[in-house]
Design brief:
Elements (H helix, E strand, L loop, with lengths): L1 H18 L22 E6 L2 E4 L5 E10 L2 E11 L7 E10 L5 E5 L4 E8 L5 E6 L3 E9 L4 E12 L5 E12 L3
Antiparallel strand pairs: 1-2, 1-11, 3-4, 4-5, 5-7, 6-9, 7-8, 8-10, 9-10, 10-11
Length: about 180
């Protein structure tokens, strides 16, 4: 009887040890949100070949508008946990001023737009980018009654110290507007 009990306990121990597997956490690759115009608070773009969206680890996403002089000023801000350095965050800020925000495509230039992009590399080095030349923003919905601003954008930014340029493409936003 003692031998049987010992054999059963050894068998259970062996089965328990071999059935325990380390659980692997799978983090899905980020994807761009669909282009929409319902106020879903979505945002994203391609930074060269990297998908840039807000993430769950650290996320600030806001769209504010207000009057500045004779024009409307739109401020899109996205802060995310840096995929290169998990102890820091990356920031994207687009400040656009236009006397008449209407549906359709508008040119972005240094006279009506300020763009600031800050990334942190794995070696903790900060890289700051600003608008280089011209780009465009297309409003597919600008609804102040329901406080929804939606559209797409694309432009090139230049790293401030090195002059390296990066294309920002496939940009999209569908935001509830604050002020």
């Amino acid at each position: 009887m003692k031998k049987s009990l010992t054999l059963i306990l050894i068998s259970i121990s062996i089965i328990t040890v071999f059935s325990c597997k380390k659980k692997q956490i799978i983090v899905p690759e980020p994807t761009l949100p669909e282009i929409s115009s319902s106020g879903l608070n979505t945002f994203g773009f391609m930074f060269a070949k990297e998908v840039w969206t807000q993430n769950l680890l650290v996320s600030t996403l806001s769209a504010n508008y207000g009057m500045q002089g004779d024009g409307v000023k739109l401020n899109l801000l996205c802060r995310r946990k840096s995929p290169q350095n998990l102890k820091t965050s990356d920031t994207f800020n687009l400040k656009y001023t236009n006397p008449d925000v209407t549906l359709g495509t508008h040119e972005l230039s240094d006279t009506n737009c300020k763009i600031e992009v800050e990334t942190i590399s794995a070696d903790n080095r900060t890289r700051e980018y600003a608008l280089a030349g011209k780009g465009s923003i297309t409003f597919i919905r600008w609804d102040l009654k329901n406080r929804i601003g939606s559209g797409t954008f694309s432009f090139t930014v230049k790293e401030i110290t090195t002059g390296e340029t990066v294309a920002i493409t496939e940009g999209r936003f569908d935001m509830v507007l604050g002020n």
